[in-house]
Fold this sequence. Notes:
Elements: E1 26-28, E2 34-36, E3 44-50, H1 55-71, E4 76-82, H2 87-96, E5 102-105, H3 110-114, E6 122-126, E7 132-137, H4 144-156
Parallel strand pairs: 3-4, 4-5
Antiparallel strand pairs: 1-2, 3-6, 6-7
Amino acid sequence: xxxxxxxxxxxxxxxxxxxxxxxxxxxxxxxxxxxxxxxxxxxxxxxxxxxxxxxxxxxxxxxxxxxxxxxxxxxxxxxxxxxxxxxxxxxxxxxxxxxxxxxxxxxxxxxxxxxxxxxxxxxxxxxxxxxxxxxxxxxxxxxxxxxxxxxxxxxxxx
Length: 158
């Protein structure tokens, strides 16, 4: 099983590059369709791990909807990876905090293990080449401009 390693500080920056092919994973979405990270090569991917019990996730979903709408035409794709053991918990969350981006389930934590997810939410920005260029632990409203700027920079780097 491939794992992504981070520095002792736990910070993923441009210097820590991991090809998406090395973390190739096919899993099944809640709708029963296949999900493969390789299908996003050439796009900027925000992979966001979340759970229904996560308070910061409630604040991140409206912001991710806004980013999705604002930058989709420039190649941004957001995929939310739900970590709830019970699908009903995720469904209840999504009724209250709808997602205008793709949601997949990872109840068994297979994808989360590959990314060494240690907090909720955990977001990874993956550039068009499949390299992880940023990792956020948690979500802070006061840092939204910083998060957006990172996305803009990765989108601009063609």
